[in-house]
Write a structure and sequence with these properties.
Blueprint lengths: L11 H10 L9 H22 L7 H20 L5 H23 L1 H6 L6 H22 L2 H15 L14 H9 L8 H23 L1 H13 L5 H14 L5 H18 L4 H14 L9 H10 L3 H30 L12 H8 L3 H12 L4 H22 L5 H16 L1 H4 L1 H15 L3 H41 L2 H14 L1 H15 L5 H18 L4 H14 L8 H10 L3 H11 L1 H12 L10 H6 L1 H24 L8 H15 L5 H19 L10
Helix pairs in contact: 1-12, 1-27, 2-3, 2-9, 2-22, 3-4, 3-6, 3-9, 3-22, 4-6, 6-7, 6-8, 6-22, 7-22, 9-14, 9-18, 9-22, 10-11, 10-16, 11-12, 11-13, 11-15, 12-13, 12-27, 13-15, 13-27, 13-28, 14-15, 15-29, 15-31, 17-18, 18-19, 18-21, 18-22, 22-25, 23-24, 23-25, 24-25, 24-26, 25-26, ...
Amino acid sequence: MSATRPAAVAPDGGDALLQQHEPLAGAFPPGLQGRLLFWLALAFSAFQIATAAHIIDLPSQLVRAVHVSFLLALVFPLLTAQANLPWRVLAWAMAVAAAGVAVYQWVEYEPLLLRAGDPNDVDIAVGVVLLVLLFVATWRAMGAALPIIAGAFLAYCLFGQHLPSPLNHRGYDFSQVIDHMTYGTEGVYGIPTYVSSSYIFLFILFGAFLEKAGMIGLFTDIAMGLFGHKRGGPAKVAVVSSGLMGTISGSGVANVVTTGQFTIPLMMRFGYRPAFAGGVEATASMGGQIMPPVMGAVAFIMAETLDVPYSAVVQAAVVPAVLYFLSAFWMVHLEAGRAGLVGLPKDELPSPLAALKAKWYLILPLIVLVVLLFSGYTPLFAGTVGLALTVMLILGGAVAQGFTGTPLRVLFWVGLGLVAASFQQFGMAALSSGIVALIAWCAFTQGGRKTLLLCRDSLAEGAKTALPVGIACAIVGIVIGTMTLTGAANTFGQFVVAVGKDSLFLSLLLTMLTCLILGMGIPTIPNYIITSSIAGPALLELGVPLLVSHMFVFYFGILADLTPPVALACFAAAPIAKERGLRISMQAIKVAAAGFVIPFMAVYTPALMLQPGGALATEWGMPAAVAYIVFKCLLAIGLWGTAVIGFGRAPMHALERVVAAAAAVTLIAALPITDEIGFALAAGVIGVHLWRTRGRQQHAPA
C-alpha cells in the first residue's frame, strides 16, 4: 500500500518545481531574513482576519491600502532572498517604501478625501512611488507581460489624445491620472483589490488550513478507493483528486506541481504516455477553478463586479463544471481502453470509507461554507466562519487526543459542536471565544503546542500564497482605471458589436481569441478582468446574458493555461512527466475539449448555465431546456471523445471517427436543423459501431 499512497504535501522537489513556475511559492528563506518575513506574513494574515471579523474596523480604502502595502513589503525581500547583499538591501528599502505608502494614506486619510481631485505635490510623489513599486513587483514576480499590458493602458491615459480617431481621447493631466490611479477606488484600489483584501485572502487561508490538516490526503484516498481499481484507474484518480483539490486551491499551476508529483508518475507507471499523463493532470488542476463551491478567485471578482450573490455565480458554474470533469473522465476512460490499461490492485488501495471515518470532520467546514453561501450570506462572512470552524476542528482534534475514554471524546465534540453552532445566535464572538479557549487548552499539552505551531505556519503560508493573486488584482486596477477614466472599452466593444451584427459566432470567436492571447502572458485573474471589461458589455448588447458572457470569458481565461504556445500549467507538468510542454499541451486540449465548446453552447442556450433566456427555455420551459441541453452536451462530449481517441467499445474505423466528429460538431452548433442532423449522425455511428463490435470484449474491464 505504501507504494501507492500519496504524501499529504509535495515532496521536496515539488517546492523547487513550484518556485520555478511561481517564484513566490516554496518555503520561507532560512536565517534572520526568513524569520522576519515569516512574522511579517503572520502579521499580514492577522490584520486580514481582524478586519474580516470586525475586530478592527477601518474604512475600506485604508484596508485596501494596507493590503497592497503588505503585498509589496513581502514580495521584494522574498524574491531577492538568495541574491547578493546590495540587492537584498534594495529590496528591504522598497519594502519600507511600500509600508510608507500605507502610513501616508492612513495619516492623511481625511485630508486626502477633502482634496480629492486636487492632489498636492506630496500626494503625486507618493502615488508615483506606489505605481513604480507595483510595476517592479509584478515584473519580478510574474514576468514582463502583465506590467507591459498595464503600462500600455497607463501610457494611453497620458498620451492617448495624440492617437488618431476613434482611438484618441480628450487628454488628461499627469496629476489627474496619478490621482485617479492611486487614490480612491477606481484604480489600484478598485474592485479587484477590494475582493483580494476581503474574500480571496480568507479563502486562501481557508485552503491553507485544510491542506495542513490533511485535505489533500483525504481527497486522494477517496479518489483512489473509488476509482483506482477501475479501467485506467490512476488517470481517473488524477481527475478526481486534482479537481477536488482545485476547489480549495487558488492556483491551478500550484495544484499541478503538488498533486501532480503523485498522480503523473502513477499514471506513467501504469502505462499512460507521459504527454497524456501530464495533459490529464493539467486539465484537471485548471478545471478546479471552475468547480463549485469555492471555485477560483475570479468567481468572487465576478460576483462583486456584476453585483450578484456569489451563489448566483456558483449556480451558473455548476453544470458546465460537472460536464468539464465528466469529459476529462471519459477521455481517460477511452484512452485506457485503447491502450488496454487496467486499474490498480484493489487490495493495495485505501478504503474511501476508512478515509472518511478518519477525517470526516474536514468536510464539515466545506458543508457549512456551501450552506452559508446559498443562504444569502456574503462570501466575507461565509469565509470567515468557514476559516474559524476549520481552526476549531484542528485545535479540537488536538485536544480530543488527550482524552482516554470514548465517552469523554464524544462529550467534548458535542460541546464543541454546540459552541460552533451558537454563532448563528451570538455571531463571531462565540467562535472567537471558542478558539481562544482551545488555544489556551492546547498551550498546556505537547500535541496541542505542535498543533498551534501548525496553525501559525498555515497563517504565514496562506499570506505568502496570496501574494501573486493580490499583486495581479492591484496592477490590473490600472486597466480598469483606464476604462473608467477614458472610456477606452467602447472602441473594442463597438468593433465586437459590429462583427456580431453579422455573426454572433464571430464575435464569440474574437472574444475567445482575445482571452487565449492575453492568457499567454498573464494569469487568469487579470485576463478575466481585462477581457470582461472590454467584451462583456459588447456581448450584452448582442443579447448574451451578462453572467453568461462573463462566464464565457472566465472559461477561456482558464483554458489559456492549457493552450500553446505558453500553456503554463502544461509546462509546469513537463519536468514531472519528463516530456515537452507543447506535447503535453496538445494532449491537454484533447482532454479538455468540453471546456472549449461548453461556453459557446451556453451562449446560444443559457439554460446550460441555469440562466433564463434563449428560444429553447421560452418555448419549452426552463427544466425541459436544461435537461435537453445537458443531454445534447453529454452526447456531443461522448462522440468527440471517441473520435479523438479512436476507441469506443473497441477500436474505431477511420470513417466512424469522422462521422462521430461531424455529429459532435453539429450538436454543438445552434443553427436550424443542426440538432436533427447531429442526432441522426450520432444514432447512425453508434448503431454501426455497436453492431460491428457485437460479441467482442473490450481491451480492459471497466
